């Protein structure tokens, strides 16, 4: 659906720019071929960018498959936990890699995120253990 909407916009944008709706959206009249035409001209001038764009699109598609798999087989809460953890670890790696410094409040934010993820794990583990105890207790009563 996203691809269909994006392609439709890119193909119609040169025509939309000349309407009142295009003016309302802030579309420029001067770029004759629209955004799609400009992008094609850029990729034609710099062919290596086209491969980078295709690689980026392929990585995005594979990432969507992992998201779909996680939602199909696990909970959305697990997906959010994995996503937030991945983003925070990426951010921390970037800070270390490029030698940036975090302010005190930024460290508080990092602590809150990882603390929340850890607390969520502890709560889930306790709930799972309580369900198993209840299941065993109901099994003993049946005997």
UniProtKB/TrEMBL annotation:
<feature type="transmembrane region" description="Helical">
    <location>
        <begin position="78"/>
        <end position="98"/>
    </location>
</feature>
<dbReference type="Pfam" id="PF08449">
    <property type="entry name" value="UAA"/>
</dbReference>
<keyword id="KW-0472">Membrane</keyword>
<keyword id="KW-0762">Sugar transport</keyword>
<dbReference type="InterPro" id="IPR013657">
    <property type="entry name" value="SCL35B1-4/HUT1"/>
</dbReference>
<keyword id="KW-1133">Transmembrane helix</keyword>
<keyword id="KW-0812">Transmembrane</keyword>
<keyword id="KW-0256">Endoplasmic reticulum</keyword>
<feature type="transmembrane region" description="Helical">
    <location>
        <begin position="53"/>
        <end position="71"/>
    </location>
</feature>
<comment type="similarity">
    <text>Belongs to the nucleotide-sugar transporter family. SLC35B subfamily.</text>
</comment>
<keyword id="KW-0813">Transport</keyword>
<dbReference type="InterPro" id="IPR037185">
    <property type="entry name" value="EmrE-like"/>
</dbReference>
<feature type="transmembrane region" description="Helical">
    <location>
        <begin position="104"/>
        <end position="123"/>
    </location>
</feature>
<protein>
    <recommendedName>
        <fullName>UDP-galactose transporter homolog 1</fullName>
    </recommendedName>
</protein>
């Amino acid at each position: 659906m996203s691809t269909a909407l994006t392609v439709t916009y890119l193909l119609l944008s040169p025509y939309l720019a000349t309407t009142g709706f295009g003016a309302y959206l802030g579309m420029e009249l001067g770029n004759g071929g629209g955004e799609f035409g400009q992008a094609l001209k850029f990729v034609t001038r710099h062919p290596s960018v086209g491969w980078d764009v295709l690689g980026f699109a392929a990585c995005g598609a594979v990432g969507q498959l992992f998201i779909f798999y996680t939602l199909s087989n696990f909970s959305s809460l697990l997906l959010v936990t994995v996503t937030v953890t991945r983003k925070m670890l990426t951010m921390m790696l970037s800070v270390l890699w490029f030698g940036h410094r975090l302010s005190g409040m930024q460290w508080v934010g990092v602590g809150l995120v990882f603390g929340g993820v850890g607390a969520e794990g502890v709560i889930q583990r306790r709930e799972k253990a309580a369900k198993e105890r209840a299941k065993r207790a109901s099994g003993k009563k049946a005997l």
